[in-house]
Structure formats: C-alpha cells, structure tokens
Backbone:
C-alpha cells in the first residue's frame, strides 16, 4: 500500500440500536472489480484502529469479492456511544448483525484483526451464522495479559500533534509489533487514524473506548476467556489463524490449542512481526488470498 493507492472505497453508514437509542456505524465498501457482488469479505480492525487499515488487502481481493471494512462504533467515521460501558464485544456483534443484514449476502468471509477477530469468533459461533470462512489475525480466546497491559497503557490518552508526520512518528513508537513498513506505507496507515482540530491533530476514536478495558477485573477476564473458548469450540467453518511470531497477545500455546480443537484452525506464523500483522506486505496478503480463494 502506498500513498498513491487508487480507486478509494465508498463510505456508507448503517443505523444500529444500542441501550440508549440509535447510532450510525460507518463502513467502507470496495466494489468487486468488473461488477457483481456474489461474494463478500468483511474486514474488522483492532481496538484502536479503523476500517481503512485494510486498503491493501481490499485492493488485492477485489478480483473476487466485494470488500466491506466497518469503522467499529466509537472509531473513525462512526458515531460515539452515549454510554462508555457499552464499548463491548456484545455491542459490536449486534452492530455487525445489522451490517450483514444491510449487505444482503447469504454468506460472507470474515477477516478480523485482534478485536475484529473476537467479534468474528462470536458471530461464527452463532447458529445459522453467515460466516463461511474465518481469518483470525493474531488473536484467540486466551489473550496474554502482557498485551492487554501494553494496549491499555496508551489507549485513550488525550494526545495531539502539530503535524501528520509527528503523529505518525508517535504511532510508530506504540506499534512496533506491526513489523517493518516503508515510510509511505506507514503514512498511509496513519492518515485515516487522525482528525484535525484547529492547528492540531488528534486520534480518530472516542477516548472512552478504553473504559471497559481499564475496568476489567481478573474474575471478569477469566469468565470472558471461558466464554470465548466455548464460542471457538462451536465454530464449524474453515478457520485460519495468523500469528506474529513475536506477539504479546496470542501465545504459541493458545495458537496450538486453536489448531487442535474447535474448527482445528490452520495456523500461519509471520517472522519479524508481533501484534499484529497489518497485511500490507505482499507475503502476508498472499497467505490470506490463498485461504480465501480456496473457497471459490
């Protein structure tokens, strides 16, 4: 992905229900090259990211799919929630069910990075799920506490910068796990993360998205892990697990367990990457394409 990426996606919105009323969720849609929309790929980002993270993957997949990349509520072009405690997987799953109804697709393929993978797991476990092929990018039912602590240390900080370049430099310091990128690639990943306020730049998300994470207790974390393993074991579709070899979120033991139980996922590890592979590099894109095209 470069700053010269062509053919930008179309920004659309869908109205979703929450405990305080209605909110709009934005999504970026890449139409299938040559027309048609018989196959749909939904790509969902991590906790502090947004849908334009998938520009490179979407461009690579347009030869076979309509690609849809939502901004999860509270991020990007989506509304913010009135109740910060509602920034939870259950809310996000409900929103995605609404989105899938809007897409009017009988089946979809799902690519989820980190939080997006947890949402995908929960959806894929439901009876009658439309998810027919699932990619979980550096996430599983058990999440390493070191990774949660690292993310929690920066999530929601009230930071601003004087320029896009300054913001990109900061984001690079907290994103070493993404692996190596050219400056053009990094700027392309950074620009959708920023919003201008006067002469300063800030991050695109509601700082309150970090409230539930900081309120997490050991007991709640243990119960959540048990629920996620139960969901994972209920998944029946072909599943690919991607892992950064240096990940502090998805441990080798959890990845091995995911290969042995539930859908018995295929596991692919990327060297020189932590949490999480951005699927910008050609070798990373190729692994995803091969898995998704196997369903064609």
Residues:
């Amino acid at each position: 992905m470069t700053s010269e990426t062509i053919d930008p996606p179309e920004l659309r919105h869908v109205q979703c229900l929450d405990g305080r009323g209605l909110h709009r969720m934005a999504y970026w849609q890449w139409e299938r090259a040559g027309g048609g929309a018989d196959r749909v790929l939904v790509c969902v980002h991590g906790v502090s990211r947004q849908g334009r993270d998938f520009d490179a993957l979407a461009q690579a997949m347009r030869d076979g799919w309509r690609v849809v990349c939502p901004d999860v509520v509270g991020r990007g072009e989506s509304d913010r929630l009135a109740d910060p405690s509602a920034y939870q997987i259950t809310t996000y799953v409900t929103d995605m069910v609404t989105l899938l109804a809007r897409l009017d697709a009988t089946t979809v393929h799902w690519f989820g990075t980190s939080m997006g993978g947890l949402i995908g797991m929960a959806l894929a476990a439901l009876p009658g799920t439309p998810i027919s092929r699932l990619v979980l990018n550096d996430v599983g039912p058990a999440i390493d506490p070191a990774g949660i602590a690292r993310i929690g240390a920066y999530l929601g900080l009230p930071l601003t910068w004087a320029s896009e370049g300054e913001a990109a430099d900061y984001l690079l310091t907290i994103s070493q796990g993404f692996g190596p990128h050219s400056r053009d690639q990094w700027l392309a990943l950074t620009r959708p993360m920023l919003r201008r306020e006067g002469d300063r730049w800030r991050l695109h998300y509601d700082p309150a998205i970090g409230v539930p994470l900081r309120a997490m207790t050991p007991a709640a974390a243990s119960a959540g892990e048990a629920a996620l393993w139960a969901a994972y074991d209920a998944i029946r579709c072909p599943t690919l697990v991607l892992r950064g070899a240096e990940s502090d979120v998805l441990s080798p033991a959890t990845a091995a367990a995911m290969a042995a139980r539930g859908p018995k996922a295929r596991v692919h590890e990327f060297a020189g990457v932590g949490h999480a592979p951005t699927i910008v590099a050609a070798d990373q894109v190729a692994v995803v394409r091969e898995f998704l095209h196997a369903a064609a």
Q: What stands out?
A: The chain is about 35% helix and 20% strand. The chain has a mean pLDDT of 94. The radius of gyration is 18 Å. Residues 89 and 119 are 6 Å apart (CA to CA).
